[in-house]
Amino acid sequence: MNNFSYTKAYSVDEAVSLTNVNEDNKFIAGGTNIIDLMKYFVTEAETLIDINKIEGKRDIVGLDNGGILIGALMTNADTAYHPLIEEKYPLLSKAILAGASAQIRNMATNGGNLLQRTRCYYFYDIHTPCNKRTPGSGCSAIKGYNRIHAILGHSENCIAVFPSDMCVALAALAAIVHISGLDGDRTLAFSDFHRLPGDTPNIDNNLKKGEVITGIELPGNGFSKNYSYLKLRDRSSYAFALVSVATGLELEDGLIKEARIALGGVSHKPWRVQEAEEFLKGKKADAENFAAAADIILQGAAGFEHNGFKIKLAKKAIVRNCMMALDPSSQRPGAKPSL
Ligand SMILES: Cc1cc2nc3c(=O)[nH]c(=O)nc-3n(C[C@H](O)[C@H](O)[C@H](O)COP(=O)(O)OP(=O)(O)OC[C@H]3O[C@@H](n4cnc5c(N)ncnc54)[C@H](O)[C@@H]3O)c2cc1C
Ligand code: SF4
């Protein structure tokens, strides 16, 4: 790890001005990702600005529009176990608790979760070419061992996936990211927050240099009656998703009034296809219609030498998870869906 200075910011304004002093100043929140990246020499900082002392960003506030605003500095654990989240947004709670370990969730913050970097092995190995780490150096994964990599939205420059569980639920819930920077405050729809790799895989998201995430807004509809989060991985705990699915359904007289389906582990950003959700509107909530929606979601999917299996896995995971959403008791640990 390279030497760095450390300082604390006590307000959003102070954090923004401190990070803009030097191109290489960076924020630290829970530190569960940035410290690893610094230890592996993947990233470095002139000064780490600790934002944990900023007041008022560790709680949940109700909004006039019926939604809520979750503080960016609230931990993943406090968020998942907050009574309001458990009651109104259980999909988010489930997704968070599917990630990492209890110890990591106790440290990790919501803002940091959105900004965690890919788990591509080559990205972490500074002795291999990687366009995300060193633009223009090449992509070792395309012809390398690409079992965990993308099947959707990849480019010839990068096939990495975004590893978060929490963000898959946030995509399905149509969250809005609250941001502050030198130019003032702004919001970004969750679907516009993360980027596809294209020609600039080194840029993960549309946050501008020196901006701080202050909160995550959730609209009023938390799909709390019919929801499910399914995470498929090589180990049943403490492993990142090969494929994950977040589903929220609103049903009326046995028909689907509204559907939300987002995929994780398959692309550079949580993958949501509104055409599939439109297709489901007014249809019977059954395996056949969910399978047709899965085909729409996976349109254009293309695998590589070691990850082609993800296409079939994702389609089956979507159907299984949507069926589980019909029976929220299936969210009990170990419960199996009735297919
Ligand atoms: C062993 C291990 C297993 C894991 N498994 C999973 C898993 O299964 N699923 C999953 O989803 N995640 C997993 N994670 C990732 C974990 O969830 C993230 O590391 C964590 O959410 C990052 O939050 P943090 O507060 O620690 O971020 P930090 O490490 O402090 O920061 C991460 C980045 O965000 C920036 N940043 C932080 N907060 C803000 C803010 N408010 N505004 C602007 N910039 C900010 C920092 O500058 C840094 O660039 C795992 C991590 C580890 C170490
Ligand atoms: S997939 Fe992306 S992160 Fe992985 S080696 Fe290629 S460029 Fe780097």
From TrEMBL:
<dbReference type="GO" id="GO:0071949">
    <property type="term" value="F:FAD binding"/>
</dbReference>
<dbReference type="InterPro" id="IPR036683">
    <property type="entry name" value="CO_DH_flav_C_dom_sf"/>
</dbReference>
<dbReference type="InterPro" id="IPR016167">
    <property type="entry name" value="FAD-bd_PCMH_sub1"/>
</dbReference>
<keyword id="KW-0285">Flavoprotein</keyword>
<dbReference type="GO" id="GO:0016491">
    <property type="term" value="F:oxidoreductase activity"/>
</dbReference>
<dbReference type="Pfam" id="PF00941">
    <property type="entry name" value="FAD_binding_5"/>
</dbReference>
<dbReference type="InterPro" id="IPR005107">
    <property type="entry name" value="CO_DH_flav_C"/>
</dbReference>
<dbReference type="InterPro" id="IPR036318">
    <property type="entry name" value="FAD-bd_PCMH-like_sf"/>
</dbReference>
<feature type="domain" description="FAD-binding PCMH-type">
    <location>
        <begin position="1"/>
        <end position="223"/>
    </location>
</feature>
<protein>
    <submittedName>
        <fullName>Xanthine dehydrogenase YagS FAD-binding subunit</fullName>
    </submittedName>
</protein>
<dbReference type="InterPro" id="IPR016169">
    <property type="entry name" value="FAD-bd_PCMH_sub2"/>
</dbReference>
<dbReference type="InterPro" id="IPR051312">
    <property type="entry name" value="Diverse_Substr_Oxidored"/>
</dbReference>
<dbReference type="Pfam" id="PF03450">
    <property type="entry name" value="CO_deh_flav_C"/>
</dbReference>
<dbReference type="InterPro" id="IPR016166">
    <property type="entry name" value="FAD-bd_PCMH"/>
</dbReference>
<keyword id="KW-0274">FAD</keyword>
<dbReference type="InterPro" id="IPR002346">
    <property type="entry name" value="Mopterin_DH_FAD-bd"/>
</dbReference>
